[in-house]
Amino acid sequence: EDVEIKILELIMETEKKAFYAGAMKYNFSCRSNYIKEIQACSDMEGLKNWFLNKTGEICSNMESAKEKEALSIIEKAQSYINENFKKDISLDDVSRMANISPYYFSKLFKQETGKNFIEYLTEIRLRHAKDLLQNSGYPIKETCAECGYSDPNYCSRTFRKYEGVTPGEFRERL
Length: 174
Hints:
Shape: rod-shaped
Helix content: over 70%
Radius of gyration: 27 Å
């Protein structure tokens, strides 16, 4: 009985930690069978297996919650980038907005999107530049400024690197 009580205490404490970490909902009905399940274990091996199964469930819930949080952070960051790409934004700005360290943000962003921050920002800016070059009469210099590039020369070099042609050549080919 002492071992059964200690196992129940450990599971309850683990669930409490998971609850405070936001990984579990507090629910009496989830626990209603714990005592019966523990008492149904015929030996120490059964108790050990019950304990390991419950612990595994809790860890799985915590991992799912962590993944959902990471995805939420990246979705917020992508939204922020999409709304502010015309400004001079940096990895530090976006990580500060997401309220996590730049290092962790960079790692998480790459993991979730498959691109690093600069690649993603450049992709958004160049997509907008191509749209402006196709659908507006803006001069190249203004197009660059509208896409978040303060230096038109840097904009042209970046455009050429990714698209194989300068913005002017891109427009001429249309």
